[in-house]
Design brief:
Strand content: 15-25%
Helix content: 25-40%
Largest sheet: 7 strands, mixed
Radius of gyration: 35 Å
Structural class: alpha+beta
Shape: globular
């Protein structure tokens, strides 16, 4: 029977949509299972065949769990704020909302063609005001919270105010910007502005001067992961380090919990390692060094206080405020020039550039508090202001970077850890040796020396033991248009949150999407964007009088804001009263399976864990971690095609003749190849671009053969394969099976369209099991043991594979089972019905159609997954190969129930064996049960 995949797939996609087959109820009687894909950003290019890989895997798992009787939440939505749509708006004037809507429609059309079992009724978009109303609401909760170290959680700012009213800062143990000291009386007597200023020091969402990656061409601040080699990832524009007033999120309060929480998660180890490194926990001491001729002190954090006697110079971050104070007139020009150069590097560039050494001498000296020796103070870009204190004590004998610095600037290198190595030539960093040249530490090992030195530092009153984290607070404002407005207005220069009744604060219309002439963010162009405090509404900007009508914040939130909590909104997407009802959050709980790319390790996955922990602290949800199990899918790589142009000509030479010429290799669009071959359609190539219109070709055997190479699939390499084309030719079920068949989910693998014919052939074979010629024919006759064995072997394998995410081996098992059933001409209902259920998570359309033909009026989706019966896998008979002196002589079929001794007796008494023995007694008989018999004579 002809397998018409196009008609079948259209029919069932229409059925699923009309019947809302995948709409998830909040029925709390069933056990729940929450399967989620990382939030897609809807780009203008649409999907290529690499994008659905993770979605297909999660969809198979979601369908499998439905077959097991779970209430499955498998939603979809769009992370729809983003820089590309804004850049397009700047270039064309088209509102980003229009571009985004068009892109989403394209994505949705493509996703529906592939047959995903998403609950489309729960779709969310971060750029919809009904969604970002709650992103703004969460921001307001963060603003009105502080982190109490005593209870180790976030609490309402009201409890902090109460503490100040009762005791001032006495006994306060909080995460803060600066350590403040005041009495309850001083707090009560402070003005409202002073009180607000003090509270900003503790709020979890706060405004402070921060060093940022500023891109003048884009007019915005960029996150570290949006900058590459000192340039913006989008557009390649120069990026500079600049101090600006910015909103930040106090994620540093959660560093220890984020670190410890990793132990509870089933995540890939490399991803956990990335987060652990990013958080960067280290234990050591905070120490103050006096500066000669100045009242200021330099405070450093060191993980090796045991080496303090070997500290021979100090290095400050170029942006450390002390630099300006302590730099001498003679060194000012050199220092200023160095600071200017450093501003062109991002923090990430500075951290990763470990080989190049540079710096400038400030002209001042610190005093080593233990050796009392003078230590020249330098600045260098390898010290970061955001980590520790923005200053390091340099111990060149025992730190590789300090050693390179000392060699470059000819500074003293003093050994304080015992080693035979010449520390003048190479640093020696070890915790296994003992201290030398270190006065009272001499002869002590690392742990003893570290503890003793911390005690001495505390006795001297110049510091204390402490734990430090590399992770810094996350900058939370962007100077761009297409993002969530920050729900803040300014009165007397201080920020105040809008009342929650005023949310959402909607993005205003603007005439242009660039910063204003005064350098304000694009929202500064809005005519209706001021806050009327008395009437609690947004009014015209020209009404601002700073008495009752005040300016609103002009920055917008970063791209990660909306994606830091979307997994919670899916639980209750249409609620207008709250971001998620507590009982629904308790029912759905953690995401049970989260699939997405590893590139989100230190961005989205940290921020969403932070927001989730915060919302738990404040009592809105009950679970600490958002994603229990996470899988990073690999990439599907493209098979690029190349032509060879002879240098200086418009002639193109075929691949196998190119070695005879001086040529340039040029990417060509894979759509210009004939069918699935490597042959170039030369006429299509000439029509592709004007500069190829006059192309001439040197052919081999009358054909132009392109060269092929496996590369990342991308538009720029012209190797993108559109899933729509694949669905058209091979069907969505063919695409789904092939993407899984390519190899293990976590690995990268090359795409090859020619390979689809194999899985398409399998689908036709599977389809025809149910037909006799053109007639649908399924027998109600009881299957044989052999038929049941094929079925239950498949059940056992597929259950194991799905639960271990080995989807590629399942597809192989389907092929084996269908081949075996075809060989024995099986058309029994008791085999073919469960077979359709087993294959349906992978190829849902064909299985729905077969299920319907089998006489069922409902979808196959919720049918119970077939149960394994191990009895069918027990062999009745075993065919034993019998070897004599290492050579196989004959085979004998024996009951599988026989003991080794019984097998031995039957083999020895066998007529063939008696002929071989010729009356001799065997020296040795080895029986491997159910496998083989070895006889030595």
């Amino acid at each position: 029977m002809f397998y018409d995949h196009q008609q079948i797939e259209k029919k069932w996609q229409k059925y699923w949509e009309e019947n809302q087959t995948y709409k998830t109820s909040n029925n709390t009687d069933k056990p729940k299972f929450y399967v989620l894909d990382m939030f897609p950003y809807p780009s203008g290019a649409g999907l290529h065949v690499g994008h659905p890989l993770g979605y297909i895997a999660s969809d198979i798992y979601a369908r499998y769990k439905r077959h097991q009787g779970f209430n499955v939440l498998h939603p979809v939505g769009y992370d729809s704020f983003g820089l590309p749509a804004e850049q397009y708006a700047i270039q064309t004037g088209q509102h980003p909302a229009i571009t985004t809507e068009q892109n989403i429609n394209r994505y949705e059309e493509q996703l529906k063609k592939i047959g995903f079992s998403f609950d489309w009724s729960r779709e969310v978009r971060t750029s919809d005001a009904s969604y970002y109303k709650w992103t703004q609401w969460i921001f307001i909760q963060l603003y009105h919270s502080w982190y109490n170290k005593n209870t180790d959680k976030a609490e309402s700012i009201d409890s902090l105010i109460h503490h100040f009213e009762e005791k001032g800062t006495e006994g306060l143990n909080a995460n803060q910007n600066d350590e403040l000291n005041f009495t309850a009386e001083e707090w009560k007597n402070a003005s409202e502005i002073d009180k607000e200023d003090i509270l900003l020091n503790y709020r979890l969402a706060y405004r402070a001067e921060t060093t940022v990656n500023w891109c003048p061409a884009l007019g915005t601040v960029l996150a570290n992961d949006e900058v590459k080699d000192g340039k913006s990832e989008r557009g390649g524009f120069p990026v500079f380090q600049k101090k600006m007033m910015q909103w930040s999120m106090r994620i540093s309060s959660y560093s220890e919990r984020l670190l410890q929480g990793l132990n509870t998660l089933d995540w890939p180890q490399p991803l956990k390692d990335s987060q652990e490194y990013w958080i960067g926990k280290s234990q050591g001491a905070q120490v103050q060094f006096n500066v000669e001729g100045h009242d200021e002190t330099v405070e450093v954090f060191t993980t090796r206080p045991d080496t303090i006697f070997g500290a021979t110079f100090m290095v400050l971050a170029p942006e450390n405020p002390l630099v300006e104070t302590i730099t001498t007139d003679a060194q000012k020009v050199e220092v200023d020039n160095y600071i200017e150069e450093t501003s062109k590097k991002t923090e990430r560039d500075r951290m990763s550039d470990v080989k190049n050494v540079s710096g400038a001498f400030t002209g001042s000296y610190a005093i080593n508090p233990f050796s009392n020796e003078k230590m020249p103070i330098y600045i260098s870009d390898y010290v970061l202001m955001g980590y520790g204190t923005g200053a390091v004590m340099a111990v060149p004998a025992h730190d590789e970077r300090d050693h390179r610095f000392a060699k470059k600037f000819n500074l003293e290198i003093k050994k304080v850890v015992e080693t035979e190595e010449d520390v003048q030539e190479k640093s020696f960093d070890s915790k296994d040796s003992v201290c030398v040249n270190s006065d009272f530490l001499n002869g002590l090992h690392y742990n003893e020396a570290k503890a003793k030195m911390i005690s001495e530092i505390e006795t001297k009153g110049i510091g204390h033991g402490t734990t430090n984290y590399r992770q810094r607070d996350a900058i939370f404002s962007r100077q761009r248009y297409w993002g969530e407005p920050v729900p803040i207005y300014y009165k007397d220069g201080m920020p105040y949150t809008l009342p929650t009744s005023a949310l959402p604060l909607e993005l205003p219309e603007v005439e242009k999407y660039l910063p204003t002439e005064d350098g304000d963010p694009p929202l500064g162009n809005a005519k209706e964007f001021a806050w009327d405090e008395a009437n609690q509404k947004v009014v015209a900007t020209d009404l601002i009088d700073d008495k009752t009508i005040f300016p609103l914040e002009l920055s917008t939130m970063p791209g990660w804001a909306g994606s830091s909590w979307y997994f919670l909104r899916y639980m209750d997407p249409n609620d207008e009263e709250t971001f998620v009802k507590k009982e629904l959050a308790d029912y759905w709980g953690q995401v049970d399976l989260y699939i997405g790319g590893s590139e989100h390790a230190t961005g989205h996955l940290l921020y969403s864990r932070f927001w989730n922990m915060f919302l738990k602290d404040r009592g809105y949800i009950s679970h600490d971690e958002p994603f229990q199990k996470l899988i990073n899918q690999g990439m599907i790589l493209g098979m690029s095609a190349f032509v060879y142009r002879i240098d200086g000509t418009n002639q193109y030479v075929s691949k196998n003749l190119a070695k005879d010429y001086q040529t340039q290799q040029i990417h060509v669009d894979v759509s210009l190849l004939k069918g699935t071959s490597d042959e170039l359609d030369t006429e299509a190539f000439k029509a592709w671009r004007p500069d190829y219109a006059e192309a001439e070709f040197i052919l081999e055997d009358g054909k132009y053969i392109t060269d092929r190479e496996v590369e990342k699939m991308s538009k720029s390499k012209y190797n993108v394969v559109n899933p729509d084309d694949i669905c058209g030719e091979y069907g969505a079920d063919g695409l789904r099976l092939y993407e899984m068949f390519l190899g293990p989910l976590e690995q990268s693998k090359p795409w090859n369209t020619q390979g689809l014919s194999g899985v398409y052939g399998f689908l036709k074979k599977f389809w025809n099991l149910y037909f006799n010629g053109d007639v649908f024919e399924v027998s109600d006759e009881e299957p044989t043991k052999a038929e049941y064995k094929v079925l239950h072997t498949l059940i056992k394998k597929v259950v194991y594979d799905i639960e271990n995410f080995s989807f590629n081996t399942s597809v192989s098992s389907f092929m084996i089972a269908v081949n075996e059933l075809q060989k024995i001409k099986c058309n029994k209902r008791n085999i073919l019905e469960p077979l359709a259920i087993i294959i349906s998570p992978y190829a849902p359309h064909i299985c729905e159609e077969l299920w319907s033909l089998l006489g069922h009026g409902t979808s196959i989706e919720f049918e119970q997954f077939p149960a394994l019966n191990e009895d069918y896998l027990v062999e009745d008979e075993i065919e034993y190969p019998v070897s004599v002196n290492g050579k196989m002589k004959f085979k004998i079929s024996l009951s599988a129930q026989l003991s080794a001794k019984e097998v031995e007796d039957l083999v020895i008494s066998n007529e063939k064996m008696q002929q071989i023995l010729e009356g001799k007694t065997p020296k040795k008989i080895i029986v491997v049960p159910h496998r083989i018999v070895n006889i030595v004579i």
